[in-house]
């Protein structure tokens, strides 16, 4: 919506009636678009912060990845973490799409990993 926004808005493309998303429910919402993404890039579907803050609406898999070889319609899996039903109207902005470059990893099996100061510490090992 603005000149320097990283994401582009995705809109609901509903046929017929609006979709009501009750608390705790999730739904696959169509967008009516398909993409041809260049090799070496992905499109990441991300929640809209305003919907998350005001209504508790988010994505089940966030970010959702659209691969460069996918040619189907983009769908958004919304979930209602709020306390009230949320009505999704046709044309409503439901998510955002950010394009990102990626590198393909080449996996090599080894007997041992190199040492680091952190080691295997994870999940809050450094405290709060």
UniProtKB/TrEMBL annotation:
Keyword Hydrolase: yes
Pathway stated in the Swiss-Prot or TrEMBL entry: Pyrimidine metabolism; dUMP biosynthesis; dUMP from dCTP (dUTP route): step 2/2
Enzyme Commission code: 3.6.1.23
Domain of life: Bacteria
GO function term, MF aspect, one: magnesium ion binding
Residues annotated for substrate binding in this entry: 48-50, 61, 65-67
Keywords: Hydrolase, Magnesium, Metal-binding, Nucleotide metabolism
GO biological process: dUMP biosynthetic process; dUTP catabolic process
InterPro entries: dUTPase, dUTPase-like, dUTPase-like_sf, dUTPase_trimeric
PANTHER family per record: DEOXYURIDINE 5'-TRIPHOSPHATE NUCLEOTIDOHYDROLASE
Protein name in UniProt: Deoxyuridine 5'-triphosphate nucleotidohydrolase
UniProt source species: Geomonas silvestris
This protein's encoding gene: dut
């Amino acid at each position: 919506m603005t000149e320097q926004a990283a994401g582009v808005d995705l809109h609901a493309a509903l046929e017929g009636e609006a979709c009501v998303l009750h608390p705790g429910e999730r739904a696959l919402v169509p967008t009516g678009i398909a993409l041809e993404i260049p090799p070496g890039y992905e499109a990441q579907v991300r929640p809209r912060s305003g919907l998350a803050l005001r209504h508790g609406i988010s994505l089940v898999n966030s970010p959702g990845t659209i691969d460069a070889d996918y040619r189907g319609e983009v769908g958004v899996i919304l979930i209602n973490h709020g306390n009230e039903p949320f009505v999704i109207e046709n044309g409503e902005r439901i998510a955002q799409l950010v394009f990102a470059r990626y590198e393909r990893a080449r996996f090599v099996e080894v007997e041992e990993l190199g040492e680091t100061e952190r080691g295997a510490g994870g999940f809050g090992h450094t405290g709060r």
